Amino acid sequence: MRFSGHETFICKQFWLKKGYDFLQNGNKFGDENAVVELGVGKNMVSAIGFWMKAFGLCDDKWNLTEIAHYIFSEEGKDKYNESIGTAWLLHYLLIKEQYASIYDLFFNGFRKARFDFTTSQLHGYLKVIAEQDGVYNENTIKSDISVLQRMYQIPDNSDAKSEPEDVYSSIFNDLQLIIKLKHVDNEGITEINRIPNQKRESLPFEIVLFSILDNYPNEQSISFKELEVGHNAPGVVFALNKTGLFDMIEKITTSYKSIRFSSTAGVQVLQFTSPISKWDVLNDYYVKR
User: Fold this and answer.
1) pTM
2) Which domains does the chain have, with CATH numbers?
3) Which of 50, 201, 233, 283 is the least buried, fewest Cβ under 10 Å from its Cβ?
4) Full DSSP string of 98-126
5) Could you give the CA distance from residue 125 to residue 104 in angstroms, rounded to a whole number?
6) Rg of the chain's alpha carbons, rounded to an integer?
7) Is 135 in a helix, a strand, or coil?
8) Over the chain, what is the mean pLDDT?
9) Is 237 in contact with 91 (CB distance < 8 Å)?
10) Which helix or strand (DSSP H or E) is residue 146 part of?
11) Tens of pLDDT along 35-74?
């Protein structure tokens, strides 16, 4: 379980391409010349390396992965990280990889019980888990929570607590998953974070299908309930409500004739009548964009 490594830096829009090119050129983040080659400070070098691993773009020995080449190579599908579909794809990968533990714990665990939460509630949840694993450190957990929040919400320029360099710089700003609210009662003002389940108009159905094929390899049938609430399921990862998930499934079955959705005796199931490649599905998305 890991709650550190980002040096308090969110992953910025251009960092993953920068990290990819750095490794592709034969460098490693522990090299003495990394600061010069990347053109950033020492702490940022460490942060970029952390995020490369967190998104599954390289392994522990700095070897680039297939998905890294697919997106960020010179022939890559979105080497400058400009597509909203790439942002959703990276969001899925960050949770699935579990290298940065908080994202898996937050989306697959904590958020299932509540859509509205305070920072202290999230901290309390993570504290219990970290203490069980023997890795709890108050300041580290606070730092991880701060980075998560800054990754997923556009900071308010009028908010004195906003980091100037974070405004519109996160790779996930366009997802706008976390809504920041203020609750006023007799005890004062409480800052509330909200990630409601809803339809996600910016979410391409091909990215949803890729996540299903990646998360449930070789499965010929998957229940709607599993797709809604299962571990790393699209309903959980992408914060989709039932209507939103149904819409995605309808688009998937309309576009791919080998995929069917059936309802028998009240059991709703997504069925694959023949194998389909997750890479072909991604290709279909990037051909259209």
Assistant:
1) 0.94
2) 15-194 (no CATH), 205-288 (1.10.10)
3) 201
4) -SSHHHHHIIIIIHHH-SEE-HHHHHHHH
5) 13
6) 20
7) coil
8) 93
9) yes
10) helix 138-152
11) 999 999 999 999 999 999 999 999 999 999 999 999 999 9
